[in-house]
Amino acid sequence: MKVLCLGGAGKICRESTLDLVQYSDFEKITVGDFNEEAGREVAAWLNDPRVDFKKINIRDKEATVKILKEYDLVIDGTTISLNDQSTACIAEAGCHGLNLNGFGAEYKYDELFKKHNRTFVPGFGMTPGTTNMMAKYIADQMESVDSVRVSHGAYRPIAFSASITETTTSEYDPLFPGRIVFENGKFIQVPPFARPREIKLPEPYGPNPQYIIPHSETVTLAKYLANKNVKLIEVRGTWPPKNMSLIKALYEWGFMTNPKVKINGAELNIMDAVGAYLMQAPEGKVTELYGYALHVEVVGTQKGKKVKHTMWHTHPTSDGSVKDWENLRAYTRCVGIPMSVGAMLIASGKAGTVGATIPEYAFNPVDVFSELAKRQILMHEEVVPAE
Predict the structure, then answer these.
(1) Nearest to 217 by CA among 192, 194, 187
(2) What's the CA gap between 127 and 217, in Å, rounded?
(3) Do 116 and 234 lie in a common domain?
(4) Is there a smaller number of Cβ atoms within 10 Å at the N or the C end of the chain?
(5) Number of structural domains in the chain
(6) What is the CATH number of the domain that holds 102?
(7) Nearest-CA neighbor of 229 among 139, 348, 127?
(8) What is the pLDDT of residues 224-267, one digit of tens each?
(9) Domain shared by 137 and 216, yes or no
(10) Domain assignment of residue 89, given as a range
């Protein structure tokens, strides 16, 4: 089989591509990106005879579809704002695929994927993606589920890439429609910094307040757990404390609605200017602590008893003591590797269904966890009586 890594020059998708080189048996692995210089650098860095580069402009649909038709599967590492266009191209080309974000535009191409007998999984990185598998793994052991609380700490610089900058501004935009919780059968919209809850992440991260964020797990888990009588689903997240302080100040001062301002006769959106500054400033490129921490807590009835079942994950430290996990790569590998794992499961026929499908229907959590363990991404769990 042949795979194309769309946006493969990005810092996260290149980790997905490296993982494919190291663990997959794809006969051809192509780095596809609009940035030819960066894309060719990544292809050279991968240093594998199966790897090549192709320049792709996702906004040129006809040309993109023509290229994608040469491949069996596409991993899509493009930004949130491009995922509608990229998924349309993947569906029309008749490829399998998956992406990192899963904000919902992808599902309208369900029938087209089914027509081609192909599987597309929106949102399969750390969160969403691995967190879906953790919640599914726990909930499948329960007769009924009262609550699911998905949490994560993403310890990375605030603006090390365009896609991360876009994610930052999107998730705390007060007008973003997907910042919801599922409560008593209804989806409820909440504002930024809603429902603070202290989550104890594994060391070196520790306890920090987390807030509701607009992630797809709220919707996909509500669908998957419909027969478990689930009453509450909340998804929270945090970034390094310094990042959170900045975002909260920008929100409180009205910046996060991204209003237009005039400067010396020129008009621009203020958050576009803030994002551009952060991408150019040293402060936007570094943080004190790097890595990722997932935490999923499910309360429900298991073997007739009310329990709280918690899962979390660990990975190699970012201090340079483990090769390839130093500094920022402790974060980017955590996000990029699950997308590679998902691609390999689809390629090996282990996806549970065809069409544009939620992660919970696509994969067996045990398959995912066993593959992650080979990469030193380890799951841990605890079951205690619920209070």
Answers:
(1) 187
(2) 8
(3) no
(4) C
(5) 2
(6) 3.40.50.720
(7) 139
(8) 999 999 999 999 999 999 999 999 999 999 999 999 999 899 99
(9) yes
(10) 2-121
Domain end position, chosen among 121, 155, 179: 121
Cβ–Cβ < 8 Å for 74, 6:
yes
Q: Do 147 and 259 belong to one domain? A: yes
* Unique residue bearing structure tokens 């001062």: 253
pTM above threshold 0.85: yes
CA angle 136/314/165 to nearest 5° reads: 85
Are 142 and 244 members of one domain? yes
One domain for residues 207 and 314: yes
> Is the same domain home to 196 and 109?
no
Burial bucket for residue 267 (CB in 10 Å: 0-12, 13-18, 19+): exposed
Residues 82 and 169 in one domain: no
Rounded mean pLDDT, 370-374: 98
Give the pair of three-digit tokens for residue 176.
């973003």
